[in-house]
Specification:
Strand content of chain B: under 5%
Structural class of chain B: mainly alpha
Strand order of the largest sheet of chain B: 1-5-4
CATH topology of the largest domain in chain C: Immunoglobulin-like
Largest sheet of chain C: 5 strands, mixed
CATH architecture of the largest domain in chain C: Sandwich
Structural class of chain C: alpha+beta
Distance between the termini of chain C: 59 Å
Radius of gyration of chain B: 24 Å
Strand content of chain C: 15-25%
Largest sheet of chain B: 3 strands, antiparallel
Number of helices of chain C: 6
Shape of chain C: elongated
Oligomer: heterotrimer
Order of helices and strands of chain B: HEHHHHHHHHHHHHHEHHEEE
Radius of gyration of chain C: 28 Å
Shape of chain B: globular
Helix content of chain B: 55-70%
Number of strands of chain C: 12
Chain lengths: 221, 572, 313
C-alpha cells in the first residue's frame, strides 16, 4: 500500500499526512463544534430575549432574587480556571510535565468550586419555593419583591440556562480528569498536546457562556 | 502544474494511472466478520451500515404509509384502525421518514461512502467519531422503538405544543430519541466540514471539487447550525413534561407559538438538509450520463450555499396562519421567494447540461430526469404556498402534504435512488439488472404521480391534512391516491429484489462502468481498504467529458523513495 | 369564467376569495407553461442527443452569462409579482371592515361554539347574515385549533392564550363546511361545523328565537351545558364506549381507577373530575387526557351537570 508515511511515526492516524495535518483537522473540527454549541445556547438566549421583551419588569423584579455576590464570585472562579487551563496548554507546549498536571488539577478544583457555589444558590432557591414552571411556589418573603404572574417562567428560564451550563461544566470536568490521568502517564509533550488544546477551547467556551449569563440574569437594574 | 500549489510536499512526480478491473483485494474482503464491521472506522463500511439502517426504517415508514392510505380508501366505512391508532401511524410515518430516513439518507449513507472517495482521501477526518455518529443514530432509534412499544406517539412529527405537553403518549421518549439523533447529525456535519477543508487530495482546489462535495458541504453547514436549535427545543419540550417549565405551555404562562418558531427554525433548514445533497447527486448523474461538462459549475456550487444561508431566514412561512404578526409574515413570504430563485437556477443549469450531450438513459439517468420533472412541480407548488393570500387557503391541507412529498420524496428519495443505482457498482462491485432497473424507475415515477397529484387537487378543494375521516366529496381523490401508493410499493419491492439479487448473482462491475470522469470511479470497484492504491493527484477538472476516455486518466503521486514494485500496475 | 385549473378550487363564496383565486390561477398557469417547457426540453434533449457511440465527444459549454442572468432575473420578477399580489390579498384578509358584525368563536376538543352579541350560543353551526362582513373573535379552550372554511378561502389558528381574528362576508345565503385544520388529537377529523348564511332578515329572526343556553330546569340546563362544552365528543350519554367513559349509568356505581383503587361516582367525584380531570382517571382511559374546566364552568353549572348525569340511568 502506498501509504505516505506509515512507517515514520505512530502519533497521527493513517489518513493524515503528518501530525500537523491531524492537529489542524482536529482544531477545525472543534471550532465547528463550538459554533454548534453557541447555537445550542442561542436557542435558550432567544427564549430569554423574547420573554424579557414581553415582560421587562418581571426580569428586573426577579433578578433581585438572585444572589449577585455568589454569581460574581463564580464569575471570578471561572475566569481563573480559564487562566489555569491556558497555563496547562502552555506547560504542555514547553514540555513542563509538572506544570501541566498542576494546572489541570487547579482547573478541576476551580470547576468543583463553581459547582458547589451553584449548588448553594439552587438550594437557597428551593427553600424559598422558587421552582420552575408548574412547581413554582414562592415563600411569602419572596412575594414582597416579586409579585408577577409570569414569575414561574423566569425561573424556568433561569434553571434551564444555568442548568444546561452546569451540565457543560460537568462534561468539562470529565474531560479535564481524563486529561489529568493521561498527563500523569506522560502522554503529552511539545510534539503532542492537541487534546489539551482542544479541551482548553471547550473550557473557554463554557466560561464565555457564563460571562454572558451572569449579567443577563443577575445584573439587571 | 496545479499539483504543486496545493501540497506542502516539495514536489510530486505525477503518473497516469489506470485502475484494475479485477482487483484481488477490496474493503469488503479485508477485515471480514461481524465484529470487524461493528468496530470498523472505515467510512465505506459505516456508509453501508447507514444504508442498511435507512432502508430498514424506510421499509417501516413505507409500510405505515400503505396502512394509512388503505384506511383512507374510505372515510367512515373502513375502520380496521381507530382514530387514535391512525393518529399514531401518521405521526410515526412522519417522524421515521424525516428523522430516520431523509435526514441521514444521502449525507450519512451515500455521502459517507462517496465523500472521501471524491476528495481522494483515505477516510473522513474523524473516523472514530464517524462510527460514534452511527451508534448514536442507533441509540436514538432504540429509544424511538421503546416509545412505540410503550405508548406510541400521536403528536404529529412536529410535536406542536400544547398538544405535546399534555398528550398521554410517549412524547418524552421519542423527543429524547430525536435529541440523541440530532447529535449524530451534528457530528456527521462537523466531520464532513473538516474533511472537506483538510483532506482534499493534492490538486483538488475548491474549484475542482465535484458538485456533490459542494452540496454535502452546504448540507453540513446547515446540520451544524440548525440541529443544535432543534436539540435545545426538544430539551425544553422534555423539561416541559418532566419539570413543567411551561415556556411553551399557555396554561403555565408560556407561549405555544414560540415553540413553532423554535421548531421551524430547525425544521425548515432541515428541509434543505434533506434536499441539498440530492442536488449533489443530480449534478454527478446528469454529467456522467450526458457525458458533458456541467453547465454553470459555480452557479450550482454557490447556489447550494445561498440556499443554505437564506434557508435559515424563512422558517416563518410555516406559520402564516399561526397568529404571528402580519409584518413577520410578510417578511417571511418575501424571503421565501428569494430562496426559490437559486433552486430554479439549478434545474435550468442541469437542463442546459443535457444540451448537446451524449445522453444514455440508464436507470440512474431515468431517475435523474424524473427528479427534474417531479422536483419542478414541487418547486412551483412551493411558490403557491409562499404566496400569502393563497397560503391562507391551502395551509395545512393535502396541498401541503402533496407539496412536501413532491420535494422530499420526489426530490430527495428519487435522487437517493439515482445515486444508489449510480454508485451501486462502486459500493458492491456488482451490476444490477438494467431492465428491471428501468421497469422499477417507471413504476416509481407513475406510482408517485398517481399518489400525490390527486392530493394537490383535494387539498386546494379544502381537504385538511391529518384527517382520519373525510366527507364524501373527497373520496375519488383518496382512492386514486391509495392506488398510486400500491404501485409505488410494488416499485420499491422490485428495486429491493433486484438489488439484493445482484449481490449474489450480479455481474462483476468494472472499475468505471459508466465511463465517468469523477475521482471515485478511478479506483477499483469496490475500492480497496484505503480507497486508492496510490494517493491520487488531481490534474483534471471534475467533469472533463470533452476529452475521450483514453486521453483522460487520473494522476497519482509517486512517493519519493517508493520502490518500483507498484509500478507494474501503472501505465504511463 | 373557465380557466385551466378551475377544477382545483371549490366554489368561491366571499368577495375576498376573488383575489386569492386569481393569484392561484396565475401561479398555476405560469407554472404549467414553464413545466411544459422543461418537460419538452428534457424529452427533446434525451432523444436528439441520445448516445450514438461510446466515443461521442461533447462540446465544452461551461456557462453563458446572458442565459444565466435571464433565467435568474425572469423568475425573480415573476416571484416578486406573486409576492406583491399575495401580499395585497393578505392585507385584504387581515383588514377587518369597520362595520363588521362580531361573533365569538370558542374552539375545544372537538367542536366549535359560536356566541352572538345577545348571548345566544349555537354549537357546530355558525349563523351569519349574508352580504355583511363578519368578524370572528376566536379563542381555544384547550390546545391549538384552526378555523378553516375552504369556500371563503379563510383559515386562522385558534390559540389557547390569546384571541385571534378572521373576517369574511357571505355573498349569498347558503351552507359551507368548517374544518379544523390544525391537528388536535383523536377526533380532529370530526371537528366539523357549518357556516349557514341567511338573508339578513332571516338571520335576525333566527337570532331572537335561538337558545341562549340558560334554562331554569337544572336537568335541561345540564344537558345543554354538555352540548355546548363538547363533553359528548368523548363521553357518550347512551352507554357506548368513547374516548372517555360513558356517563350513562355511572351515578352511584363504583369505578376502577388507573391506580387500581375504586371510587364511587358521587357529587364530589364528578366535581373533581370536571375541575381536575387528572386526579382520578378511570382505568383504560389514560391515553387522552381531559382538559380541566376550572374557570369555565361555575359551581351552579356543575350542579346542573350533576343533576343531568343523575337522570342518565
Amino acid at each position: 500500500m502506498a501509504n505516505h508515511s506509515s512507517a515514520q511515526t505512530t502519533l497521527h492516524e493513517h489518513h493524515f499526512v503528518d501530525t500537523d495535518h491531524q492537529f489542524d483537522a482536529a482544531k477545525l473540527g472543534m471550532w465547528v463544534f463550538i459554533v454548534n454549541e453557541i447555537l445550542f445556547f442561542g436557542g435558550l438566549f432567544c427564549a430569554y430575549i423574547i420573554f424579557r421583551a414581553w415582560y421587562p419588569d418581571l426580569f428586573q423584579q426577579a433578578a433581585y432574587q438572585l444572589n449577585a455576590v455568589l454569581g460574581g464570585i463564580n464569575t471570578l472562579v471561572l475566569i481563573a480556571s480559564s487562566f489555569t487551563v491556558a497555563m496547562a496548554i502552555r506547560s504542555a507546549q514547553t514540555d513542563n510535565q509538572k506544570g501541566l498536571r498542576n494546572h489541570l488539577l487547579f482547573t478541576i478544583i476551580l470547576a468543583f468550586v463553581f459547582l458547589i457555589i451553584k449548588a448553594f444558590e439552587y438550594n437557597h432557591k428551593f427553600e424559598l419555593g422558587l421552582f420552575p414552571g408548574a412547581y413554582y411556589n414562592p415563600a411569602p418573603e419572596v412575594l414582597e419583591h416579586l409579585n408577577h404572574p409570569k414569575a414561574n417562567i423566569f425561573f424556568s428560564i433561569y434553571y434551564m440556562l444555568t442548568g444546561v451550563h452546569a451540565i457543560h461544566i460537568l462534561i468539562g470536568i470529565g474531560l479535564l480528569i481524563s486529561l489529568y490521568i493521561r498527563a500523569g502517564r506522560g502522554r503529552f509533550s511539545s510534539k503532542f498536546y492537541n487534546p489539551v488544546e482542544i479541551v482548553g477551547l471547550y473550557w473557554h467556551l463554557v466560561d464565555l457562556i457564563w460571562i454572558f449569563l451572569f449579567p443577563l440574569l443577575y445584573l439587571i437594574e | 502544474m496545479t499539483t504543486a500549489e496545493a501540497t506542502k510536499v516539495k514536489s510530486l512526480k505525477v503518473q497516469r494511472f489506470q485502475p484494475s478491473d479485477n482487483p484481488t483485494k477490496n474493503f469488503l474482503t479485508e477485515e471480514k466478520g461481524v465484529w470487524a464491521w461493528m468496530t470498523t472506522v472505515d467510512h465505506k463500511k459505516i456508509g453501508i451500515m447507514y444504508l442498511v439502517a435507512v432502508t430498514f426504517f424506510f421499509a417501516i415508514g413505507g409500510f405505515l404509509a400503505v396502512l394509512l392510505r388503505t384506511k383512507l380508501l374510505s372515510g367512515s366505512s373502513i375502520s380496521f384502525i381507530d382514530a387514535n391508532q391512525y393518529n399514531q401511524l401518521f405521526t410515526l410515518h412522519g417522524a421515521i421518514m424525516v428523522f430516520f430516513v431523509l435526514v441521514p439518507s444521502i449525507p450519512a449513507a451515500l455521502g459517507n461512502f462517496i465523500l472521501p472517495l471524491q476528495l481522494g482521501a483515505k477516510d473522513v477526518a474523524f473516523p472514530k467519531l464517524n462510527l460514534g455518529s452511527f451508534y448514536i443514530y442507533v441509540i436514538g432509534a432504540i429509544f424511538t422503538f421503546i416509545a412505540i412499544a410503550a405508548n406510541g406517539l400521536d403528536t404529529g412529527w412536529t410535536f406542536y405544543t400544547p398538544y405535546s405537553s399534555e398528550s398521554g403518549t410517549s412524547v418524552l421518549l421519542v423527543t429524547f430519541g430525536v435529541f440523541i439523533l440530532g447529535f449524530s447529525s451534528i457530528l456527521t456535519g462537523t466531520n464532513f466540514i473538516t474533511t472537506i477543508h483538510k483532506l482534499r487530495a493534492p490538486g483538488m482546489t475548491w474549484g475542482k471539487m465535484p458538485l456533490n462535495v459542494w452540496a454535502l458541504y452546504a448540507t453540513s453547514i446547515i446540520q451544524v447550525l440548525a440541529t443544535p436549535v432543534l436539540a435545545i427545543t426538544l430539551v425544553l419540550l422534555m423539561m416541559e413534561r418532566v419539570l413543567g417549565i411551561g415556556i411553551f405551555d399557555s396554561a403555565l404562562g408560556g407561549d405555544p407559538v414560540l415553540f413553532q418558531h423554535f421548531f421551524w427554525f430547525y425544521s425548515h433548514p432541515a428541509v434543505y438538509i434533506m434536499i441539498v445533497p440530492a442536488f449533489g447527486i443530480m449534478s454527478e448523474v446528469i454529467t456522467t450520463f450526458s457525458r458533458k461538462t456541467i453547465f454553470g459549475y459555480w452557479a450550482i456550487a454557490l447556489s447550494s450555499l445561498a440556499i443554505a444561508f437564506v434557508g435559515f431566514l424563512v422558517w416563518g412561512h410555516h406559520m402564516f396562519t399561526s397568529g404571528q404578526s402580519p409584518i413577520a409574515t410578510t417578511v417571511f413570504s418575501f424571503l421565501t421567494f428569494l430562496v426559490g430563485i437559486p433552486t430554479g437556477m439549478k434545474i435550468l443549469n442541469w437542463l442546459a447540461t443535457l444540451y448537446k450531450g451524449s445522453i444514455k438513459l440508464d436507470t440512474p439517468m431515468l431517475y435523474a430526469l424524473s427528479f427534474l420533472f417531479i422536483f419542478s412541480i414541487g418547486g412551483f407548488t412551493g411558490i403557491t404556498l409562499g404566496a400569502l393570500s393563497v397560503d391562507i387557503h391551502v395551509h395545512d391541507t393535502y396541498y401541503v402534504v402533496a407539496h412536501f412529498h413532491y420535494v422530499m420524496m420526489g426530490g430527495t428519495l428519487i435522487a437517493l435512488l439515482a445515486g444508489l443505482h449510480y454508485w451501486w457498482p462502486k459500493i458492491t462491485g456488482k451490476m444490477y439488472n438494467e431492465t428491471l432497473g428501468k421497469i422499477g424507475s417507471a413504476l416509481i415515477f407513475i406510482g408517485f404521480n398517481v399518489t400525490f397529484l390527486p392530493q394537490f387537487v383535494m387539498g386546494s378543494q379544502g381537504m385538511p391534512r391529518r384527517y382520519y375521516n373525510y366527507i364524501d366529496q373527497f373520496a375519488p381523490f383518496h382512492i386514486a391516491s391509495t392506488i398510486g401508493s400500491y404501485i409505488l410499493s410494488v416499485g420499491f419491492l422490485l428495486i429491493l429484489y433486484y438489488l439484493l439479487h445482484s449481490l449474489w448473482k450480479g455481474k462483476r462491475a468494472p472499475a468505471n462502468p459508466w465511463g465517468s470522469r469523477a475521482l471515485e470511479w478511478q479506483t477499483t470497484s469496490p475500492p480497496p481498504l484505503h480507497n486508492f492504491e496510490h494517493s491520487p493527484v488531481v490534474i483534471n477538472e471534475p467533469y472533463d467529458y470533452h476529452r475521450p476516455m483514453e486521453e483522460f486518466q487520473l494522476g497519482i503521486a509517486l512517493d519519493q523513495g517508493e520502490d518500483s514494485d507498484h509500478t507494474e500496475k501503472e501505465k504511463v | 369564467m373557465g380557466r385551466l385549473f378551475d377544477f382545483m378550487l371549490p366554489e368561491a363564496k366571499s368577495p375576498t376569495a376573488d383575489s386569492t383565486d386569481a393569484l392561484f390561477h396565475f401561479i398555476n398557469e405560469v407554472s404549467f407553461i414553464l413545466l411544459l417547457g422543461i418537460t419538452i426540453a428534457i424529452i427533446f434533449f434525451a432523444i436528439k442527443y441520445r448516445r450514438k457511440s461510446d466515443d461521442d465527444v461533447t462540446p465544452v459549454i461551461k456557462h453563458n452569462n446572458a442565459l444565466e442572468i435571464t433565467w435568474s432575473v425572469i423568475p425573480l420578477i415573476l416571484s416578486l409579482i406573486v409576492f406583491a399580489w399575495g401580499y395585497s390579498g393578505y392585507l385584504n384578509l387581515k383588514s377587518v371592515p369597520d362595520d363588521a358584525y362580531e361573533i365569538k368563536v370558542n374552539a375545544f376538543k372537538w367542536g366549535w361554539n359560536f356566541e352572538y352579541s345577545n348571548g345566544a350560543i349555537s354549537p357546530a353551526e355558525l349563523h351569519v347574515p349574508a352580504g355583511r362582513p363578519i368578524k370572528l373573535v376566536m379563542q381555544s379552550r384547550d390546545i391549538i385549533h384552526s378555523f378553516f372554511v375552504p369556500e371563503y378561502r379563510i383559515k386562522q389558528d385558534v390559540l389557547p392564550n390569546r384571541y385571534t381574528y378572521v373576517w369574511f362576508s357571505a355573498n349569498e345565503p347558503g351552507e359551507s363546511h368548517i374544518f379544523c385544520a390544525e391537528y388536535c388529537g383523536t377526533d380532529h377529523s370530526g371537528m366539523l361545523a357549518k357556516v349557514i348564511a341567511h338573508e339578513p332578515d332571516d338571520f335576525d329572526t333566527w337570532l331572537t328565537t335561538s337558545n341562549t343556553g340558560a334554562s331554569d330546569d337544572p336537568v335541561e340546563h345540564g344537558k345543554s351545558l354538555l352540548t355546548l362544552n363538547g363533553c359528548q365528543s368523548c363521553h357518550s350519554v347512551d352507554g357506548s364506549k368513547g374516548i372517555g367513559p360513558t356517563l350513562k349509568g355511572i351515578w352511584g356505581h363504583d369505578v376502577t381507577l388507573s391506580n387500581g383503587s375504586t371510587v364511587t361516582v358521587d357529587e364530589n367525584y364528578i366535581r373533581e373530575s370536571i375541575l381536575d380531570p387528572q386526579a382520578k382517571i378511570v382505568k383504560g382511559f389514560e391515553l387522552v387526557p381531559m382538559t380541566s374546566f376550572m374557570g369555565i364552568l361555575d359551581d351552579k353549572e356543575i350542579d346542573s351537570i350533576i343533576e343531568y348525569i343523575k337522570t342518565l340511568k
